[in-house]
């Protein structure tokens, strides 16, 4: 998995704060913009998040290039309808080589050599059939029906911050499958590194629900590291009881930690 931030709204945090403030002031936008101090900006970001008044978050967008992920992942990803996508075509782009072009789930590796051999053989067999069908004159768009879902792909994705909030809530959660969960945590750490005040209170749905319920929101890092944090929600939307939520969130991250550093060298930001 490789995740690269291609472009984003640079003044995202201030834009959201000033846009939110526009809803209650007669002042010119430029006046509010020039007057907006750091503390006030942080307050607006916290308020909009904790009250669920997140339409101002839509003014801010991020575009990512996501590579070396399976078609299983992208099938799940494109269910998030409010994002924009451009994916490598299997109709117009024939797959020429399968070596290193498929994803291997950790559960296969854990099962040992026999399972891995079976898995790889199955993929190679499908690929051979694919090539044979093309050699017989079948167009790649039809021959691809025999390809496995493990085949790698790349996709460009643009999400606004409100859509990302929803995406993180669902896909950073332990209930999400490991591959899309690894993608969600990767994207989270990238956007948090450039806009920390916007994203620090955000995480899986349990944290978002908790932060809508309490007077003073807690940061995701506190939930991950501070054993003394007491949550107030009785259960998360997935039914995990209060006393198990911290462990659940920590497991959701630890389980995919190996994908974090390898996935976004240079902090994920495109240096070109
Ligand atoms: C753990 C997990 C398991 C899943 N299992 C399955 C499964 O077994 N089968 C399956 O089919 N899917 C499954 N999904 C996919 C899931 O049902 C959603 O399609 C997916 O998570 C996208 O979420 P979304 O609709 O909130 O996102 P988006 O499409 O990005 O929508 C964002 C928000 O906009 C609003 N919205 C968007 N479109 C509409 C609309 N047409 N009408 C009303 N409101 C709208 C909703 O409030 C929505 O939450 C699963 C998802 C998760 C996280």
From TrEMBL:
FAD binds at residues 55, 79-81, 87, 160-162, 166. The active site is at 171 (involved in ionization of n3 of dump, leading to its activation). SUPFAM superfamilies: Thymidylate synthase-complementing protein Thy1. Binds 4 FAD per tetramer. Each FAD binding site is formed by three monomers. GO terms for biological process: dTMP biosynthetic process; dTTP biosynthetic process; methylation. Pfam families: Thy1. DUMP binds at residues 76-79, 87-91, 144, 171. It catalyses: dUMP + (6R)-5,10-methylene-5,6,7,8-tetrahydrofolate + NADPH + H(+) = dTMP + (6S)-5,6,7,8-tetrahydrofolate + NADP(+). One of its GO terms (molecular function) is NADPH binding. Homotetramer. Catalyzes the reductive methylation of 2'-deoxyuridine-5'-monophosphate (dUMP) to 2'-deoxythymidine-5'-monophosphate (dTMP) while utilizing 5,10-methylenetetrahydrofolate (mTHF) as the methyl donor, and NADPH and FADH(2) as the reductant. Belongs to the thymidylate synthase ThyX family. NCBIfam families: thyX (TIGR02170). This is Flavin-dependent thymidylate synthase.
């Amino acid at each position: 998995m490789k995740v690269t931030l291609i472009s984003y709204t640079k003044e995202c945090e201030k834009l959201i704060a000033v846009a939110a403030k526009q809803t209650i002031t007669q002042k010119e936008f430029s006046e509010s913009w020039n007057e907006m101090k750091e503390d006030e900006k942080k307050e607006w970001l916290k308020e909009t998040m904790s009250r669920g008044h997140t339409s101002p978050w839509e003014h801010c967008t991020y575009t990512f290039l996501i590579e070396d992920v399976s078609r299983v992942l992208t099938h799940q990803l494109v269910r998030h309808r409010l994002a924009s996508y451009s994916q490598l075509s299997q109709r117009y782009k024939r797959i020429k080589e399968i070596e290193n072009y498929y994803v291997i789930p950790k559960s296969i590796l854990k099962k040992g050599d026999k399972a891995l051999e079976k898995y790889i053989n199955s993929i190679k067999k499908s690929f051979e059939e694919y090539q044979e069908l093309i050699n017989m004159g079948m167009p790649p768009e039809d021959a691809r029906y025999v390809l496995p879902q493990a085949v790698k792909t790349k996709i460009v994705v643009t999400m606004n911050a409100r859509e990302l909030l929803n995406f993180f809530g669902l896909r950073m959660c332990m209930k999400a499958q490991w591959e899309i969960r690894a993608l969600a945590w990767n994207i989270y750490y990238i956007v948090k590194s450039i806009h920390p005040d916007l994203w620090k209170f955000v995480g899986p749905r349990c944290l978002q629900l908790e932060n809508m319920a309490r007077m003073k929101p807690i940061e995701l890092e506190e939930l991950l590291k501070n054993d003394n944090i007491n949550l107030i929600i009785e259960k998360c939307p997935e039914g995990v009881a209060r006393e198990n939520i911290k462990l659940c969130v920590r497991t959701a991250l630890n389980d995919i930690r190996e994908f974090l550093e390898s996935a976004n060298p240079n902090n994920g930001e495109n240096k070109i």
